[in-house]
Design a protein that fits this description.
GO terms for molecular function: phosphatidate cytidylyltransferase activity. By secondary structure, the chain is mostly helical. The protein is built from ten helices and two strands, in the order H-H-H-H-H-H-E-E-H-H-H-H. Strand 1 (166-168) and strand 2 (172-176) form a beta hairpin. The longest helix is centred in the first third of the chain and has 32 residues, at 74-105. The chain is globular and about 50 Å long. The termini are far apart. The mean pLDDT is 91.
Length: 275
């Protein structure tokens, strides 16, 4: 199992880095859209959508994403700004208010329309964040993604070595508070190293720690949905890793928040313009 995981990672990581730094912007957007649609396919399976609903859902998402990516003219520019302006705050509201309540209640949502909407809130703001952060600079996107990957790895190893106190036994029995602490320590050290190496403001460290906490919440949220649906993994596309959602669960909750923070000047300008 470990060998399979490592082999998959050995292929995925270089391929991702090449795409991140070399692909033209529209094709990066299209690649991330394709990954998002695969994630929505997995969500549709876990939610138990009927085939007609599933295919219509995916087709509508694909069509909208392609039009946003390749459309031209002032109308499309307006739609792109509108999607970014509303998509990231909606995601922030979901992860700050609704997701914690969902996790604490462990409610199972059976309404198909709510699950359709939840899938979009889960995946589409992540796509917007991947595209908008990369447009600033690929290095910022990579730095934020490393927060999640470091937190995930540190939580796993710290929990395995020191784990005693369960974090959410009814959702993900393997996760522990010691793992959370290990994740926070590792992310704090990562933030400190970046500050020292690039003479950055130390305020990025608490920002990284907040993102690490939200990445753990995203992991727990996907674990809850899988447990309620009777799925061990969200999919089988990535040998040893499961599905796309299994790999990006921590990113779904943290990356849109990072993008929202970095785009705050744009929101302020829009507010001043409308005032």
């Amino acid at each position: 199992m470990l060998k399979t995981r490592l082999l998959t990672a050995a292929v995925l990581i270089p391929a991702f880095l090449l795409a991140l730094f070399l692909l033209p912007e529209p094709y990066w957007s299209l690649l991330m859209l394709a990954a998002s649609i695969i994630g929505l396919w997995e969500w549709s399976n876990m939610a138990g959508f009927k085939p007609a609903v599933k295919y219509l859902y995916l087709a509508a998402t694909a069509l909208g994403g392609v039009l946003l990516t390749f459309g031209h003219g002032p109308e499309n520019a307006f739609l792109q700004e509108y999607a970014l302006f509303w998509g990231l705050p909606v995601a922030a509201l979901f992860w700050i208010v609704l997701a914690p309540a969902w996790l604490m209640s462990r409610a199972r949502i059976r309404n198909v329309y709510l699950m359709l909407l939840s899938g979009w809130i889960l995946v589409l703001p992540l796509w917007l964040a991947l595209v908008s952060l990369r447009a600033i600079t690929p290095w910022i996107l990579l730095a934020v993604m490393l927060v999640v990957w470091i937190a995930d790895s540190a939580a796993y190893f710290a929990g395995k070595r020191f784990g005693r106190h369960k974090l959410a036994v009814h959702i993900s029995p393997g996760k522990t508070w010691e793992g959370v602490l290990g994740a926070l320590v590792a992310v704090g050290l990562y933030g400190w190293a970046l500050c020292v190496a690039f003479n950055l403001n130390l305020f990025i460290i608490p920002g990284f720690l907040i993102l690490a906490v939200f990445s753990i919440m995203g992991d727990l949220f996907e674990s809850l949905i899988k447990r309620q649906s009777g799925f061990k993994d969200s999919g089988t596309l990535l040998p040893g890793h499961g599905g796309v959602l299994d790999r990006v669960d921590g990113l779904t909750s943290s990356l849109p928040l990072a993008a929202l923070f970095l785009h705050l000047p744009l929101y302020y300008q829009a507010w001043m313009y409308s005032a």
